Amino acid sequence: MNDTNVSSAVLERLSEEWEALTPEAQKAARYVLENPQDVGISTVREIAEAAKVKPNTVVRMARQVGFDGYDDFREPFREAIRRGSVNFPDRARWLQDISRTGDMGGLYADLLNAAIRNIEDTFAGISADNLQAAAEAIWNSRNVYVLGVGVNNANARNFTYLASTGMTQFFAIPKPGSVATDDLAWADERDVLIAMTCRPFRTEVIEAVRIAREQEMTVVSISDSPASPIILQAHHGFVVSADTPQFFPSSVSTIALLETLLSFVIAVSSEEIVDRVEKFHKRRHQLGIYQEEPE
């Protein structure tokens, strides 16, 4: 953990209070200082066993630095997990710990609050003018390549699928059996790359953005940090909030942003889009793809 993490203040307080702790409490404090990643995912008994002290000693240590008890002491470390400050396996273990302790209602509330907060934080930092500028670049392009790997691959393909109901120049990459940089081989200044990756950033997405810039493509990037390599290289960059109690970054705000961006593309497009969408869905009804409502 580092100084930016919500639990760093607790570690500092432990160090400051070191001399005031009993020898046994110092053993517990030493374990916490050396293994802070364990606190948010461990019960008081598990920490006590690992530190080779009694559970009451861990509780006394927590009270010595200003907390009511171990649960109160552990909360900043859990908050670090919620904010993605620890690795994926630790976050997965924390979820299992919640299940063992029966606090599923608390997890449900945390997930719901995180989803709502992510959307609010994301759109609070994005203006309609920024979205319109990106939408106009997309609409006026020859081809639009939508790049997402890992969890964002599904997001990229969903965006491309929705766009295909009215437009034909959208392509999800990497294509099956290919790599993104090869898919961009013949792209140039007439084309747009929409790229997305959240921490930890995927190297193939970063490389594709670099290639796109070299080929003078317009780059629209979506990531969870203003310092993201793909945001720094973007013509149009959008920072999403992806905090979540789950062990992978949340896609809720990314999906919401992509749906909004596509709506802006439709809004700035020509009137023929309406006819295209109508023709597309009429054909689907004719082919029996949709279940018809009873008359």
UniProtKB/TrEMBL annotation:
Q: Which Pfam families match?
A: HTH_6, SIS
Molecular function in Gene Ontology: carbohydrate derivative binding; DNA binding; DNA-binding transcription factor activity
Fetch the InterPro entries from UniProt: Homeodomain-like_sf, HTH_RpiR, RpiR-like, RpiR-like_SIS, SIS_dom, SIS_dom_sf, WH-like_DNA-bd_sf
Q: Which domain of life is it from?
A: Bacteria
- In what residue span(s) does the SIS domain sit? 134-279
Q: Which UniProt keywords apply?
A: DNA-binding, Transcription, Transcription regulation
Show where the HTH rpiR-type domain sits: 8-84
Q: Which PROSITE patterns match?
A: HTH_RPIR (PS51071), SIS (PS51464)
Q: Which PANTHER family match?
A: GLUCOKINASE (PTHR30514), RPIR-FAMILY TRANSCRIPTIONAL REGULATOR (PTHR30514:SF18)
Q: Name one GO biological process term.
A: carbohydrate derivative metabolic process
Protein name listed in UniProt: MurR/RpiR family transcriptional regulator
Q: Which residues form a coiled coil?
A: none
Q: Answer whether the UniProt record assigns the keyword Transcription to this protein.
A: yes
Q: What is the lineage of its organism?
A: Bacteria, Pseudomonadati, Pseudomonadota, Alphaproteobacteria, Rhodobacterales
